[in-house]
Amino acid sequence: MNISRYMTEDAVKLEMETVIDPPEEGQSIERWREQAKSLILLELVDLLNETHRVGNRNKLLIDFVNREKKASTAIGHGIAFPHIRSMQATEFMIAFARSHTGYDYGAPDSAPVRLFFIMAAPPYEDNLYLKVFKALAEMLQYESFREELLSVTSPGEVLRAIRAME
Q1: Which residues, 6 or more positions from 161, have their beta carbon under 8 angstroms from its beta carbon?
Q2: What distance in Å separates the CA atoms of residue 8 and residue 156, rounded to the nearest whole number?
Q3: Each residue's pLDDT tens digit, 49-65
Q4: CA 166 to CA 88: how far, in whole Å?
Q5: What is the pTM of this model?
Q6: DSSP annotation string for 72-123
């Protein structure tokens, strides 16, 4: 599966900028995490928006937030993979973002999420969506690949790392 074919350097961010404040006094951790995820998703959707394949950015963000409320897309090992099929995706798109410090994203292993792959596809793109999801999930099983993604210094290196795994 040629995942790098669907990515561009514009859709790679090597250091996320979202700042998450600690929970306010009396605020439940669940509510705080939900708000934090919304801020993180906003930054990730803005990255997808750079691909010029987004219909309505705000509606796409709402689709991602609603998807995340159903079940966390954090999969452990410092990885989250927010993914949806949405009418706001004019065609298949995928982006990558990294945070060196990581975010509390509700991962099953409680590890901070440092690597984010965000993917959106139109509702009719089931086949491609599932193939890319599966191929990327297989790549991310390898610790060496995850470590490489954490150490790259340019968007081009991210794409080369993905190509090397394909």
Answers
A1: 145, 148, 149, 152
A2: 8
A3: 998 999 999 999 999 99
A4: 28
A5: 0.94
A6: --EEETTEE--EEE-TTBSS-EEEEEEEEEEE----TT-PPEEEEEEEEE-T
